[in-house]
């Protein structure tokens, strides 16, 4: 599927991760943040909506930071990141907020995992760190995606907020 978002495509998603990468990689050295020193990120197309495409088609970019050797991982962090992204995408809310504030919305098929965020419709999820850090890293990347969309909109003649 080609991205349907006007201002967020695979290049923007990749750049959003790249901008956050130095800080995330520095944090991953701390075993209290990530015992495996790894983080897998998933960024979705903000224009893709449940019911209009399959979840896999909504993925713009996936990337692993830190420990690249999956054979040494104690869990499949890529699968967990996708599960977190799917949860936030389907429900339109951070996975932590959904589980703590609106557990009545959870379906039997929903995985109970934290670390996916939905920032103004921008879904990013991370796995490999402690859940609060997965969420923080997801927010960093989602914030970068939003800033890049604003920048691209302004460059295309859209009104830029001051």
Note down, in words, how this protein is organized.
By secondary structure, this protein is α+β, with helices and mostly antiparallel strands. It has 5 helices and 4 strands, in the order H-E-H-E-H-H-E-E-H. Helix 1 (10-28) packs antiparallel against helix 5.
Q: What are the SSEs and their pairings?
A:
Blueprint: H1 10-28, E1 38-44, H2 55-58, E2 59-66, H3 77-91, H4 95-101, E3 116-119, E4 122-127, H5 131-155
Antiparallel strand pairs: 1-2, 1-4, 3-4
Helix pairs in contact: 1-5
Molecular shape:
globular
Q: Tell me about the biggest sheet? A: 4 strands, antiparallel
Mean pLDDT figure: 94
Beta-strand percent range:
15-25%
Structural class: alpha+beta
The strand order across the widest sheet is 2-1-4-3
Total count of helical runs of at least 4 residues: 5
Low-confidence stretches: none
- Rounded to an integer in angstroms, the radius of gyration calculated over CA atoms is 15 Å
Percent helix range: 40-55%
What is the H-and-E element order?
HEHEHHEEH
For the termini, the CA-CA separation is: 34 Å
**How many strand segments?**
4
List the main descriptive attributes of the protein structure presented here:
4-stranded antiparallel beta sheet; alpha+beta; 5 helices; globular; 4 strands; 162 residues
Q: What's the short story on this structure?
A:
Helices cover 43% and strands 15% of the residues.
């Amino acid at each position: 599927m080609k991205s349907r978002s006007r201002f967020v495509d695979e290049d923007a998603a990749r750049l959003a991760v790249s901008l956050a990468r130095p800080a995330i990689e520095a944090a991953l050295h701390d075993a209290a943040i990530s015992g495996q020193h790894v983080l897998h990120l998933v960024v979705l197309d903000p224009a893709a909506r449940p019911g209009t495409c399959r979840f896999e088609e909504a993925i713009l970019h996936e990337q692993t930071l830190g420990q690249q050797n999956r054979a040494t991982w104690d869990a499949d962090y890529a699968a967990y990141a996708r599960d977190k992204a799917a949860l936030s995408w389907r429900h339109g809310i951070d996975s932590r907020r959904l589980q703590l504030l609106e557990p009545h919305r959870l379906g039997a098929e929903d995985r109970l995992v934290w670390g996916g965020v939905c920032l103004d419709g921008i879904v990013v999820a991370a796995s490999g760190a402690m859940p609060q850090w997965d969420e923080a890293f997801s927010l960093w990347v989602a914030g970068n995606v939003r800033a890049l969309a604003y920048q691209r909109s302004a460059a295309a003649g859209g009104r830029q907020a001051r």
